[in-house]
Input
Amino acid sequence: MSDMKKEEYFALFERLIDSMTQPTEFDREEFVGILGDICKLFHLSKGVTEFYRSLSAEKNGDGEILIDYDNGHGDKVVMFRRLVTPSMTVIKSTLYMAEEEEPLSEEDYRRVDILLRSMLSFISRNRLQTLVEKLGFFDEDGYPNLNFFMRSLEKLNERGEITGNTVLQFNLRHFSLVNREIGRQAGDVVMRGYFDQIKKLIGSSGVICRIGGDNFIALFRSELLHSVLFVIEGFPVIYDTRREKRIMVSACAGVFVIPEDFVMNKPSEIIGKVFPAAQEAKFNPDCNIVYYTDDMNVRKERFMEVGKLFVEGLEKDEFKAYYQPKVDVETGKIVGAEALCRWIRDGRVVPPGEFIPILEQNTDICRLDYRMLDIVCMDVRRWLDEGREPVRISVNLSRKHLIDVDLLEHLLKIIDDNQVPHEYIELELTETTTDVEFRDLKRIVNSLRSSGICTTVDDFGMGYSSLNLIREVPWDVLKLDKSFLPVENKDDRGSAEIMFSHVISMAQSMGLECVAEGVETEKQIDLLKKNKCKIAQGYYFDRPLPVEEFEKRLQMRSYEV
Ligand code: C2E
Ligand code: MG
Ligand code: MG
Output
């Protein structure tokens, strides 16, 4: 080999090493150039490198050409290399020369071989990395995933550009309803359309990823927050361009505006802030957008603690039923009672407001409800055995039960195992917010009714009260939320009274028994009487009572009115 050729060879080798150690991504053009120069230096006419994802893909010829060079002068094969990686991807390279060309000397053959093998091993590794990237950083629908997001945070942080950005985690509202209304396929189009809209808005300096189902996370310059929130509040997405069909999509979101002095040690520090805000937004029907505040993490820790202590509390029988009497306002007679849960922990009576919202974040609440029903059934059974005349006791059932197809069976098993006649048990359920829940609710109330168990719609008037709820579901009792009761010295007292009396007369004409809860004053009792709302529950008569206290009231049977 001439000195000049040797020098060219070394230069080529250097260039190859340079390209292979570049931190940038695989530069196809560069490698095509190197292959071309190898061919020129050694008088080769053509070079082709192919890549296959698997052995079977190779068999079926289903691969891609990664780099090629062809001067059109002939195709006599001079070298063929095939590399199978441990993950069974295949990379193949073939070099050709013209028929009339001098064959390669042994030395040249070795040199070409070294160049080609270095190139192949590099490309195959690089290709593998791209594949792994695809698997690790994108989900099955091609959306970038949480890993992608974390890596983007690290990249930004590395460049010192993390501050000045805002992170937003959002969940599409009622997306299962959207799917049901327009079909799954159109639903996919809608999700993509909404995603693209935000992606366009946040531009190339932003990142948006899907983190499972209809949950997303995005990072963008803080000055864009206002326009992003505009889309979050509600944006019409076209899902059928031909027929111009569109649907309104909105989301609930947690927001973390990264402060100027924020120091990120690892990406989870940012995720850990936006996540609790997003959780709160999701579970708070009154608030679409929740900003992160420092006390959220304290709350989150308490959440986790409650979750842990709950199981222990169940084992140690720390949950008790307190009974609040329901009273006939005309006669003062106790006609029923509601069982309300209290957690007796370290001598303190913990009210449900401190733990039920936490247990409702997963299905722990269902275990608690079953326990409460069991306690109530045991008490009723004991009262019967002791010859006391029990009253009907209502137990609260969380909405979380609605998806349980075996709910009725579970309830009946507890009641029947305790040998309690069904007429003594009543179940209180609250209003639903989605159509899907509504359908389940209807099914459950219907089946309870056929088993002879009374049902109550609880807190009516508090949330999304809909008339359909009482028209289409065969409830026995309608319980008016305390916010419905007119309160003295309040401006809207007049209209509250009108509403109150209308709802009662409507419920009565539908054959529903009415109970007013949260009754505290004599004036309110008078109002109930005037409107023929027969039953009241509230501090006016008694607070929820421990079982021994309640038993005394049962003995007494009635209050003075
Ligand atoms: P709820 O079912 O609507 O229960 C009525 C709530 O109103 C009770 O609060 C009761 O103590 C309170 N209350 C009764 N009379 C008055 C009054 O005159 N004035 C005022 N201001 N409040 C009155 P509590 O016991 O704190 O329970 C709160 C909520 O927790 C319940 O609302 C119910 O939704 C839930 N809860 C309680 N026990 C259970 C349970 O075992 N399972 C489930 N799933 N939820 C429960
Ligand atoms: Mg209730
Ligand atoms: Mg209530």
The radius of gyration is 35 Å. Residues 338, 396, 428, 458 surround magnesium ion (ligand 2) (CB under 6 Å). The mean pLDDT is 90. The longest strand covers residues 334-345.
